[in-house]
Here is the input.
Amino acid sequence: MGLIKSLAKLTVYGGAATTGGFFIWTRNSQFVPFSTSDAIFQSAAYNKYNPEKNPTMHDLCVRRVPLSKIKPELQQPNGKLVEQFCAGVWSGKGYTIQREILARKYRGPETAHQLWTPSDLKASTYPVGTQITDHFEVLEHTPESIVVRCGDSPRKTEVRPGDGLFEIGAKVLEKEGVAEFTLKSVFYQGLGKASGPPMPDYIVWLHKQYTKLWMETAIWNVTA
Here is the structure.
């Protein structure tokens, strides 16, 4: 939670102070409602890591981009679009500060098998089991979505005090002439019975700004 707070403040206030355009730049990334009937709440991972069915903080950010702006080789139904979008999240400018903070704290011999450098993060296709900067691990990979566990080191495989799932989605909507990109977050207290949501409202707001930054910078990896 502290990391989200610090990064989001730096993103929003620093960006606004230097360019005055953060909210204009991210205006096309929209949050839309989604309920606990969503498939992510029925997943094996959610049921395993939130055994008490504690309250969640969940949100869904959606961005649509005209197909004329998407690289032609990524418009085929072969899963490459979501892989490149995912690679853009982790290798992109929006993740730079967090990536560097985590590298200073956790990169070493015991995490050498994980992805750390922008070049490796950009080149990966994110198969199940991929570990990212000692903070994320790929749990599911389909042609249209990649789900990672977040909230703590993937080396901590048990139920955690703070936990979450993050779904990166991308698909081509040919009839509408757009590619649709989604970032879906679900956070919860995994260990013990919670009395309320895992985050206060102001942290939720900051998290959303950080999500929009990830969305916009990840899209750079799939546009021509």
